[in-house]
Fold:
Amino acid sequence: MQGLDVQIQPVVSIQELIRAKELVRQVYMDEKIENYILDIVFATRFPDQYKLDKLKPLIAYGGSPRASINLALASKAVAFLNKRAYVIPEDIRTIAHDVLRHRIGLTYEAEAEDVNVVNIIDQVLKAVNVP
Structure:
């Protein structure tokens, strides 16, 4: 692309971006929603406690406490982008794959059975009770 003199124009200012970040953190999250997030993450760590016994040999390690924190923040961002001041379960389900995909390690058995992380997250989301 030699010879092109393209000027990039900002869409938002740094101050607007900082303000949006502050607003996202203020989005309300009910305790039931917080517990829902914890259940999702714990189900990746202790699948047998969530009636997901068949997943236990497939997961080498599940989501950490940081997975819970980031799932909560990302859910707040989804709510904010949808013009809501509160998080609903669908916000969590919308972003769960993106947040958890790289936070769950699979065993060799999972690879041998052609199971991937998306399959695991799908099963966890189906099994955990939605508030």
Q: What stands out?
A: The first helix runs from residue 14 to 26. The helical segments are 14-26, 31-45, 65-81, 89-100, 108-112, 117-127. The mean pLDDT is 94. The beta strands are 59-61, 105-106.
